Amino acid sequence: MKAIVGVKRVIDYAVKIRVRPDKLGVVTDGVKHSMNPFDEIAIEEAVRLKEKKIVKEIIAVSCGPKQAQETIRTALAMGADRGIHVEMTAADMDKLQPLHVSKILANLVAKEKADIVILGKQAIDDDTNATAQMTSALLDWPQATFASKVEKEGDTLKVLREVDGGMETIIVKLPAVVSADLRLNEPRYATLPNIMKAKKKKIAKMKPGDCGVELKTHFDVVDVSDPPVREAGIKVDDVDTLIAKLKEAGKI
Question: For the Electron transfer flavoprotein alpha/beta-subunit N-terminal domain, which residue ranges apply (predicted)?
């Protein structure tokens, strides 16, 4: 099988997010970026499938500015075979939405004749959790979202997935779209030799138009603001005082 894996460049999870002065986004200039953690899990799963001789080739795809190539190189160092960079300007990135990414991925699936798409269940910057589902719809492929375990059985995938009520096991027919949940695996660290090898692997460059995608916004950001500051708690001496305080606050 041939696998396409999406890898998104996001603000590093350890960075404190700051809202822009115009309140239409967050500050990204001069801020450390890294691969979306859920996408690291997706790449790791693809590499494990390759090690089991289930997947023959892994293509890492990223949409973004020039710096997105660093994210692709990380994926290549982890074990991906080649990359595709869909280049975008800063202005394009402000317009980029999950539906655009899904259309790009669907187009690349057709061009590359891929058999499986593996994505992180969500990106930690916008938390939309929509790209995998929309890609599945555009391709008319079955989807296995929030995957915690993936096993190939013949021409199907047996997927253990996390749902609100617990765990669910589903079987989907290939080709399919899979989105990786947190407990699917633990991504490996890229070793120095693999980082050096990754520099020689090919990264093809494309534009959204090459994938038949026009970046039209489907919604507008009205306001971005910091979450409200949490009020300090208080200590009480006994249960009766606690109940009285809760009644005063209108909680009970």
Answer: 23-215
Contact 160, 173 (CB under 8 A): no
Which tens digit of pLDDT belongs to each residue from 142-186? 999 999 999 999 999 999 998 888 899 999 999 999 999 999 999
| CA dist 22 → 37, 141, 144, 223, 225 (Å) | 28, 41, 39, 9, 10
pLDDT digits (tens, 9 = 90+) for 25-83: 888 888 899 999 999 999 999 999 999 999 999 999 999 999 999 999 999 999 999 99
